[in-house]
């Protein structure tokens, strides 16, 4: 007996975990580059924060990801559990995920406006997922 195929929404959820880890490493790497390995390996009790542009952008991009990530996780799981996968919800999941992928390099490069469009596209993706779940 073979297992049923995994819904694409759940595959995107798995990919979103990879994206989360990548963003954590980018953020951590930029901070370590600026403040040093001893700081990163230590308790960070001295209150120092990176002041460099790239480290600041990486930190803000990660925080921004974490603002919408719980909603994506909840909606992807809800769509899978209720059997409402595919269609509008799948379009929304793809839109959220790929917009978040595009958002990171745009933010790190300091690209204005287009970055905001990527953020808005991700938000629309969540809306589509919610609509697929509710309607």
Task: Give helix and strand order, one letter per element, not per position.
Answer: HHHHH
Large-scale geometry = elongated
Runs in which pLDDT lies below 50 for 5 or more consecutive residues are none
What percent of residues adopt helix (DSSP H or I)?
over 70%
Which structural class fits the helix and strand makeup?
mainly alpha
Biggest β-sheet strands, sense, barrel? none
Number of strands: 0
Q: What is the quaternary state of this protein?
A: single chain
Beta-strand percentage? Answer: under 5%
The overall pLDDT, averaged over residues, is: 96
Radius of gyration: 17 Å
Instruction: Give the end-to-end Cα distance, rounded to a whole number of Å.
Output: 34 Å
Total of helices: 5
Task: Please characterize this protein's 3D structure.
27% of the residues are buried. The chain has helices at 8-35, 37-41, 53-82, 87-109, 114-134. It is an all-alpha fold. Helices cover 79% and strands 0% of the residues. The radius of gyration is 17 Å and the shape is elongated. The longest helix has 30 residues, at 53-82. The chain has five helices and no strands. Helix 1 (8-35) runs antiparallel to helix 3 (53-82) and helix 3 (53-82) runs antiparallel to helix 4.
